């Protein structure tokens, strides 16, 4: 891990991947675990990386897949059920508290995953519809449709004065 290449890789991508993972799983600690797993897996299998895409795209795809796997996992479902029944209040990182106070972020996080993905990748990662389609292995028309549907759903939840932030045209 003393290799400068690995250090640069970690420095360059960690925050971005944490942000992506958090937007999927809505849990800062789980996002940290997911990103750590992504880097460990990448370091273990680095020689097998075929360079068919950039390292950034590859790590982003790995993070999205791990985040989706987490959402399907027994651990996540058990945690959600436990939280629901115990109504436990957990202390949250100041970053998460600030994120939750943001009306737009709350509305985006409330979207179903298939609508949340294009919005996150478009606004937060600044990817084009074509890049999102490639990353998610979907037709570009499907990405555009889901993005449009997400905007319609968000329009119902976000006050008119804040809607200007979501105009993409």
Tell the overall outline.
globular
- Assign a percent range to the helix content: over 70%
The separation of the N and C termini measures: 44 Å
The secondary-structure element order is HHHHHHHHHH
Count of DSSP helices? 10
Mean pLDDT: 78
User: Roughly what fraction of the amino acids lie in strands?
Assistant: under 5%
Task: Kindly provide the radius of gyration, computed on alpha-carbon positions and rounded to a whole number of angstroms.
Answer: 17 Å
* Structural category: mainly alpha
* Unreliable runs: 85-92
What is the number of beta strands? 0
Report on the biggest sheet.
none
Report on the structure:
With 169 residues, the chain is mainly alpha-helical. The chain has helices spanning 4-25, 28-44, 55-72, 74-86, 94-101, 103-110, 113-124, 129-136, 140-157, 160-163.
Summarize the structure.
With 169 residues, this protein is mainly alpha-helical.
């Amino acid at each position: 891990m003393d290799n400068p290449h690995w250090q640069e890789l970690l420095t360059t991508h960690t925050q971005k991947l944490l942000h992506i993972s958090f937007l999927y799983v809505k849990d800062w600690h789980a996002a940290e675990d997911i990103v750590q797993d992504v880097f460990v897996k990448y370091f273990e299998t680095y020689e097998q990386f075929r360079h068919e895409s950039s390292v950034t795209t590859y790590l982003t795809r790995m993070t999205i897949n791990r985040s989706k796997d987490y959402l399907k996992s027994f651990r996540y479902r058990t945690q959600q059920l436990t939280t629901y029944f115990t109504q436990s209040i957990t202390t949250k990182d100041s970053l998460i508290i600030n994120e939750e106070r943001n009306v737009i972020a709350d509305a985006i996080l409330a979207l179903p995953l298939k609508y949340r993905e294009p919005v996150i990748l478009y606004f937060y990662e600044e990817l084009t519809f074509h890049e999102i389609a490639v990353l998610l292995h979907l037709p570009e028309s499907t990405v555009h449709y889901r993005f449009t549907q997400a905007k319609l759903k968000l329009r119902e939840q976000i006050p008119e004065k804040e809607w200007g932030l979501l105009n993409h045209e």
